[in-house]
Amino acid sequence: MKCVVSQQKQFTATGLVMFLCLASTAATSASYTSPETIEGTRRIEAEGLIQLANSNKSLTIIDSRISSDRKLGYIPGSISLPDTDTSCESLARLIPQKSDSVAFYCNGPNCRRSDNAVVIAVDCGYTSIYWFRGGIEAWQANNYPLTK
Asked: Which of 74, 113, 121, 122 is such that its CA lies 20 to 30 A from the CA of 15?
């Protein structure tokens, strides 16, 4: 019986530690705010993304969110490439010319996925990078359509 109680206490302590780690991660994510600018990119707003798409037919718009977020709706014409899958190789498949324009977005200023993706694109040598920091949050605030 003593051994069972000891194992139960150990299991409870392990569970508590895991819970605190997860809670800490969630709190950190919830309190995260994207930087105002990222070197090597041009920050744009929702209207700017529309203007850019209308004036630059070769623009690639990348949705840096995970698939469960994309299923809720995405900016029409965007391509899914989660930040976790973004690399020089995956970008080269979508945008072979590093001088071609590319715009990245995610859920909004509290989402770090597009932040991560644009930094990767900069590091890969892309030179015409637009960052829609406001993301889906700003898109919906302007009542622009989403595709599902």
From this structure: 113
